[in-house]
Amino acid sequence: MRLLRTTGGIEYPLLDGDRVGVGDVLSMQIELDTPAHVYVMNEDASGAVFQLFPLPLGELANPLPAGRRLRLPGRVAGREQDWQVTSPGARERFYVLISHQAVPDLHPASTGFELAEAGRPLDRSALYAAARVTRGVGGLSERVDAAAGASFPVGEWLRDLAHQDPGLQLKRFELDNPAP
């Protein structure tokens, strides 16, 4: 599994601590030995959490097949998609959970972490015109939930899930996304 940045049509692997910036395009390359359910989440320095994969309208869905090199997030409406850094987030943590069974709590319809723009092209002019604030990776908009302002300890929660089920694997990447 590799987190990648694409610049000028060339993919570069990202390592923990690497720096990303507004406009960078990211994806994840994964190849599984056995079919599995894969969930990718992003958490910024403020604690806002967004599910980057699976996408509610994505053509690539769980369980992912074994023996094929896949690029996440995959296709939406027939077009390959990448995640894009749309604003500084100070620190970006990526969590990848791999399970041989579905994790119902992480189904895109039930998390409240999903991308607001998933499944439709991101109209940046409309975003700026409406003065909506986006942050971090993937064309994300601010999370709206009942506990506005409260952060959810997603890393701790995912670690607890992985400890409870030895069949789950949890990987973590952390990138620096400073203000210019």
Q: What's the structural blueprint in terms of helices and strands?
A:
Blueprint: E1 2-7, E2 10-14, E3 25-31, E4 37-44, E5 49-53, E6 69-72, E7 74-76, E8 79-81, E9 83-87, E10 90-99, H1 108-111, H2 124-129, E11 136-137, H3 154-164, E12 169-177
Antiparallel strand pairs: 1-2, 1-3, 3-6, 3-9, 4-5, 4-10, 7-8, 9-11, 10-12
Helix content: 10-25%
Protein structure class: mainly beta
Beta-strand proportion: 35-45%
Contiguous uncertain segments of 5+ residues: 111-135, 140-150
Kindly report the average pLDDT value: 76
Q: Count of DSSP E strands? A: 12
N-end to C-end Cα span: 29 Å
How many discrete structural domains?
1
Query: Which H/E pattern describes the elements?
Result: EEEEEEEEEEHHEHE
Largest β sheet strand count, sense and barrel closure? 6 strands, antiparallel
The total of helices stands at 3
Instruction: Characterize the quaternary organization of these chains.
Output: single chain
Radius of gyration: 16 Å
Query: What is the overall shape?
Result: globular
List key phrases describing it.
180 residues, 12% helix, mainly beta, six-stranded antiparallel sheet, 3 helices, four-stranded antiparallel sheet
Structure description:
A hairpin with a 2-residue loop joins strand 7 and strand 8 (79-81). The chain is mainly beta and 180 residues long. The model is unreliable at 111-135 and 140-150 (pLDDT under 50). Strands 1, 2, 3, 6, 9 and 11 form a six-stranded antiparallel beta sheet that branches. It has a four-stranded antiparallel beta sheet with strand order 5-4-10-12, covered by helices on one side. The chain has one domain. The protein has three helices and twelve strands.
